[in-house]
Amino acid sequence: MTETPGRRTDNGKNRPDSLGIRHELARKAIHLSSITIPLIYCHITRDLALMLLVPLFMGFLLVDLLKNISEPVSTWYRRNFGAMLREHELSGKKRHLNGATFITLSALLLVLFFPKILAITAFSMVAVSDTVAALAGKTFGKHRFGHKSLEGSASFFISALLIVSIIPGLNLPIGIVMAITATLTEAFDFRIGEFRIDDNLSIPLMSAGTGLICYSIFLPEQIASLSLCR
Questions:
Q1: What's the rounded Cα separation, in Å, for the pair 86 and 10?
Q2: Cα–Cα distance between 96 and 39 in angstroms, integer?
Q3: Which of 45, 50, 143, 163 could bridge to 150 as Cys pair (CB 3.0-4.6 Å)?
Q4: pLDDT per residue as tens digits for the range 160-185
Q5: 1 found inside a domain
Q6: What is the Cα–Cα distance from 49 to 111, expressed in whole angstroms?
Q7: Shortest CA distance to 169 belongs to which of 106, 108, 121?
Q8: Strand, helix or coil at 10?
């Protein structure tokens, strides 16, 4: 998520959010650590990846559910992680899932439904480019649209281009289309009614889906090779 400097605005309604740069750095350091998922997936089988991701996702989901219904769990959660949470995550008005749950869910869905190379590419962009965009937008963002900034979105796109250029076995033009899709997805909110789709989920699924469509149309004979990380 791209932020603008000073007080943040969150949840698509331009309301101020008080998360400071120090806690944003801590939050994004944790987010960036998720890059270990595609790095590991490159060297293990799909079945082993699922064996690791399913319990990881279920653990995060369980904590999320318990913090919404159990006061002791909610108190523990806020005491340990409250400084790094966004305002909508602290609000008790609506039950929600946190970013860690969404990002492990996205990893699980990518492994389940997409060839390995596309899954690795899409997840790498949400892990790295989303982090770069948030920090750049919060530090340097001056030209706003909604609660995002042009500087943050530009940083996302540049870092995404670097990622697709180094992924082994990925067709570069298709990789560029995936980077554009991911940048646009990060820049705008996607909603189903009142529910805002978390960008940890929308960015990788939209970019991987776009990549798979492009391969199916233009290079269908290469889809089988996308299951190999060379």
A1: 8
A2: 29
A3: 143
A4: 999 999 999 999 999 999 999 999 99
A5: no
A6: 7
A7: 121
A8: strand
